[in-house]
Amino acid sequence: MTEGIERLARLITESEKTVVFTGAGVSTESGIPDFRSPDGFWSKYDPEDFTIQKFLRSPAARKAFWKMSAEGGLLAEAEPNPAHYAVADLHHSGRLDCVITQNIDNLHQKAGVPEEKVFELHGNMRRVVCLSCGNRLPMLEVVQKVNEGIEIPGCPDCQGILKPDAVLFGEALPVVTLREATRRAQKCDLLIVIGSSLVVYPAAYMPAYAREAGARLAIVNLTATPLDCHATVCIQGKAGEIMPRVVAMVRPS
Ligand code: APR
Fold it and tell me: Residue 82: CB within 6 Å of ligand 1?
């Protein structure tokens, strides 16, 4: 592992434009389960209950979603872990072009990466949107209503259906974010994947776009991924342990 860490630190030192691509694995050490590990989210919940079709069709599905959100089942008090802070350190040392993340937990921003450098392909749980009038509200304000006994909160302006700003299955990804993230992936000279199984598209195209454009690929993940064979550096292990060691070895720019 040490050799991989030294090699990745060298790649970052040599890079002019480093993009970090993250998945749920970067947040497991913050106490947020990932999706496809043995005790992951999909081992407890049915993905079918998280499709946009079901959310719109079934008041019971909306009620279950808001109950889970109110119980803090979705990231309420999570804090960044050393992996998030290591990525933020790359920003502080002027070495980070951007973070493209599949995560909706806002932890890259909480760790110090500026909002304009975080491209959230699957949205964010910080906000809620009304599907009728487009009104946007803070998630905490809506969860407050659930805690006061309103099982399916409606839009305060028009009583329309409120949906978290996270992308549900069957929903299109935010177009502008996806377009800019794709552009960044195609322009970087190093893309570092941290904590993703790389099995969900179109997000998982990002490392491929970078490779096709001539960038080098590095993967830091607990388990093997389908793109390991295309990576210049592959380090299997916990991001919270690996990334601080990598960043500590990056020579100041
Ligand atoms: N350090 C490094 N890697 C880790 C760690 C850790 N501490 N913990 C877990 N991992 C790895 C797992 O081995 C797994 O390969 O992170 C990966 C997480 O993969 P998934 O659970 O599939 O999460 P992700 O790749 O983000 O899923 C993509 O699928 O369900 C949808 O919308 C959801 O955004 C999500 C998308």
Answer: no
DSSP strand pairing (127-130 vs 162-164): antiparallel
Residue nearest to atom 9 of ligand 1 (CA): 25
Rounded Cα distance, 139 and 253, in Å: 39
Mean pLDDT, the chain, rounded, equals 94
pLDDT tens-digit map of 114-162: 999 999 999 998 899 999 999 999 998 999 999 999 999 999 999 999 9
- Model pLDDT, residue 253: 67
Per-residue pLDDT tens over the stretch 75-109: 668 999 999 999 999 999 999 999 999 999 999 99
Instruction: State the distance from the centre of ligand 1 to the C-alpha of 121, rounded, in angstroms.
Output: 14
Does the Cβ of 17 fall within 6 Å of ligand 1? Answer: no
DSSP state at residue 51:
B
Torsion sign over Cα 193, 196, 199, 203? negative
Tokens (6 digits) for 130: 């009304």
From ligand 1's centre to the CA of 110, what distance in Å? Answer: 19
Domain endpoint, select from 166, 193, 220: 166
pTM: 0.94
Same domain, 192 and 109: yes
In terms of residue numbers, what domain contains 104?
1-32+79-122+173-253
Which residue among 20, 46, 196 has the greatest number of ligand 1 atoms within 8 angstroms of its CB, and so is best to mutate? 196
Active site residue 108: no
